[in-house]
Each structure stands twice: as C-alpha cells, then as structure tokens.
Amino acid sequence: MSKLKRYFVTGLLTILPVFLTLYILFIIFRLIDSIIGGIANRYLKAEFGFSIPGAGFIITILVTLVTGFVVSHLLSKRALPLIESWFLKLPGIRQVYPSIKQIIGFIFSKDKALFKKVVLVEYPSKGIWSVGFMTNEGFREAQELTGQELVHVLIGSTPSPWSGFFILVPKNAVKFLKMSAEEGIKLIVSGGILKPD
Prior knowledge:
By secondary structure, this protein is an alpha+beta fold. It is 55% helix and 16% strand. It is flat.
C-alpha cells in the first residue's frame, strides 16, 4: 500500500506541472482566439461559408511578427517615439500604458538587474520579516524629508513577484540576502516551497 501511495505521489508530481502548464497555455490560446478569431471567423463564414479553428491565434502571431519586423527595420528611431507620444495623448492611455510597458519590458528582458538585491525587511510590522527586492536607492526628496538614506524595496506577492507593495526603507534596517534575484523570484512564486540552496 505504501508503494502504491509513493507511486501515486511521484506520478502526481510529474503530471501536475505538465498539465497545469498546458492548461494555462490553453486558456491563453482560447482567450486570444475567441476575441480575434471571433471577428475573423464571422467574416469568413459570411463571405466564404467556412471558419478556421485557431484563426485568432494565427492572426495574433502574424500581426506580432509583422509589427516586430516593421519596428526593427522600417521605423526610424525618431518615428517610434513620435507615434508613442501621439498614443499617450489619447484619453486614459497615459495612466495605464507606461506601467504596462515597463512591466512587460522587464518580464521579457534578459537583464533582470532591475531587481538589484534580495532583501529582508521587517514588514508589515516589527518582528515579521518579509522577502523583497531592492529595486533602487537615492530618492533625494524622500531622503531629505526623513533625514535617512532610503532604499526602494518591492515586497512581491505570491504567485506574482512583480505585484505587491512598494516601500521605502532606511538602508540600515535592510538585511541583504546572498541569493540571486532568480532564486528570490522562485521563492516568492512558490510561496516558500522552493527554498534556495
């Protein structure tokens, strides 16, 4: 009986990550396909009498590739900022677009140096320690008002370390951990299950 239990747990630990990964990818595929594919397939059905499963996903991939090519080869370095500045003038865009652009840029960046150090800070109250990322330092106005050298710390939340609380902490109250930013991200994403070596 104990062997069967061990086999079941081993099988579960092998299958579950694969299943959840495929399930999340399937949900993303369905979402993209239902939005863009719905429009494309309605047109195809009305004009030609047939629809293509996955048309929305195919169109999204093609549009992304064409946009990447145009931005890389045809738009000059002056033209892109002009288009972006025009886009930012649209109502409601300025409040949302810059933050989303920075987050997406960080996620797809090869250089994760924005998370400079993994730190321990007493947060949300004394005696309770939170793992966070030092993202910057030297916020002059805040330092002048407090009279202390402050560091910027992002306290990431599980399962997304990119969301959470941004706090300013006196540098002498921060404990710097030896783990890498990648290990810190894994620790937070897993809710503390994956401990660094």
